Amino acid sequence: MIIFVSENEMKQQIYIDTSVIGGYFDEEFKDATLRLFERLDNNEVIFVISDLLDLELINAPQQVREHLLKYPSNKFQRIEMTQEAVQLAEAYISEKVVGKTSIEDCRHI
User: Which of 17, 14, 20 is nearest to 33 (CA)?
Assistant: First the structure.
């Protein structure tokens, strides 16, 4: 699960990936994830989502794919993958910080 949090003047921004959404439907993570989505419902936070999330959702279970569609676009801030992010992810792999199977997580970071 990857969650990055930053503060701005208005709302807390929380970067999420597919596993965070999946936690909504997983008994082990359900309580914490429900509280997180309640904060989204109450306009306490804004979720930061990326084009990587879009790609991950293609192969996610249907309920996970459809969950974010319940929310209006103003609940999200969208960011795109940069060349610097790709290079940093590749550096993590080449320096053996993590294995090759973690490349997507590295791109999120």
Answer: 20
- Rg value, the chain, Cα: 15
d(CA 25, CA 82) in angstroms, rounded, equals: 31
Count other C-beta atoms under 10 Å from residue 7's C-beta. 8
Strand partners, 7: 12
Q: How far apart, in whole angstroms, are the C-alpha atoms of residue 44 and residue 77?
A: 14
Judge whether 82 and 51 are in contact, CB under 8 Å: no
Within 10 Å of residue 71's Cβ, how many Cβ atoms?
13
pLDDT beneath 70: ranges in the chain: 1-9, 101-103, 106
- Give the DSSP per-residue string, 48-60: EEEHHHHHHHHTS
What's the whole-model pTM score?
0.76
